[in-house]
Amino acid sequence: MADWGVTVRRFEFFIDREARAGSPVYAVLAQYVSEDLAAGGMFTDVLAGAPERQRIPNLLFASVHRVLFDHPQDPLAAYYPSLGGTRAPDAALPEAFAAFVAAHRAEIDPLLATGETQTNEVRRSAQLFPAFGWVRAATRRPLGLIEIGPSAGLLLHADRYDYRYEFADGTVLPGGAAEADGVPPLHCEMHGSCTPEQLAPFVGKELRVSSRVGLDLNPLSPDDPEARAWLRALVWPEHEERRARLDAALAHAARRPVRLRKGDALRILGDAVEAVADNAVPCVFVSNSLPHWSAQGRADLVALVRELGARRDLVFVVKEGFRVGLGLFSGGPDPAGEAPREAHEVLGAAVYLGGRERLFRLGTAGMHGASLDWEPRPLVAA
User: Fold this and answer.
1) Are 360 and 351 in contact (CB under 8 A)?
2) Cα dist. 96→74, 76, 183, 314 in Å?
3) Residue 220 in contact with residue 147, Cβ under 8 Å?
4) What is the pLDDT of residue 342?
5) What is the pLDDT of residues 102-128, one digit of tens each?
6) How far apart are alpha carbons 259 and 268 in whole angstroms?
7) DSSP secondary structure letter of residue 183
8) From CA 65, how far away is CA 123, in angstroms rounded?
9) Distance set, CA 317 to CA 32, 308, 328, 347, 361 (Å)
10) How far, rounded to the nearest angstrom, does the alpha carbon of residue 323 sit from its chain's CA centroid?
11) Pairing relationship of beta strands 345-353 and 172-175 according to DSSP bridges
């Protein structure tokens, strides 16, 4: 008999750290599903057909959202702004949700069993772009961008977008090449003590990129209608601005495709690194993906990155919670303390030049790309 305690805690964590501030609809539904699972209710059967690692809130809600797009007249749609709904979450929402799921298990179950939470939030580029500029400044060479878990590869276009970095005093610093036609400017609020003068050297228009490739178990083509529908479903119902950005970025990516390789990154990363031109530095990066890996998989990735870094100059950029990101390399807690609630993640880099490893904490970053506290400094172990 399955132990649902881990899954219940995932939903509780989701409520506290994500949904409460970001989605009233999902906050109510996550509470309902959590209580249902704890009581051995219907959702134990719904989630039983999915692998254990897939029993997560975002995947359940995205699967239902995707099917709901095909049934826009269902009463549940009244609660979803993404389908034109205007009804605020109330006591009837859980009942409508459960009824919809029960009626459409044949469509929902396969998505739960095989889907991936490939959110591909394009505004995260606003956080990664300064890191790429920092790598360029540190190595003085073109970058061969290699993304682990690229979904449809939108972040591989980071240098092409138009950015607006807004500081607390109202100053707005533009960045990027602004050559991604149709993609609106990506706004990012700057927190902390960073000034425009300190950020400017890393977000200029000129970032030399020699190559781009993404490595994914299931890469999504930006011009595939079903892939686009799935990515739209992964965006929370109330986040219409995010959905509009996604649509624009997918259209741009379809016009300027990059190479996306299907396979396990632990098997094909070495080949991707070796394929980077000799005069360039491989810049491997991962964002909001490693929490879905097993602990052993994350440990194996660190070992592989270190092995590759011993062979040639390499930089690994990571934007994840410290424990499953930069902390995998340092082996200890974040010396700066836990990231504030509005900036859950740490942006960091493991730099390998001449075979020597150096770790850097570049700042803290909000989950969906909305904010950045930019403060590059060497990571000092606690």
Assistant:
1) yes
2) 9, 5, 36, 51
3) no
4) 55
5) 999 999 999 998 888 776 789 999 999
6) 14
7) P
8) 22
9) 37, 14, 13, 7, 10
10) 16
11) unpaired
Can you read off the two tokens belonging to residue 341?
């609630």
What are the CA-CA distances from residue 336 to residues 130, 191, 244, 253, 329 (Å)?
20, 15, 35, 37, 15
What's the CA gap between 312 and 277, in Å, rounded? 11
**Is 334:327 a contact under the CB 8 Å cutoff?**
yes
The confidence band for 170, taking pLDDT boundaries of 50, 70 and 90, is very high
Residue 378 three-state SS: strand
- pLDDT band of residue 214 (cuts 50, 70, 90) is very high
Q: What's the CA gap between 251 and 269, in Å, rounded? A: 27
Alpha carbon distance 313, 278 (integer Å): 10
Helix (H, G, I), strand (E, B) or coil at 351: strand
**What Å distances lie between residue 247 and 17, 175, 185, 299, 382, CA to CA?**
26, 21, 14, 35, 43
d(CA 139, CA 143): 9
Element (H, E) at 144: strand 143-148
Size (the chain), residues: 382
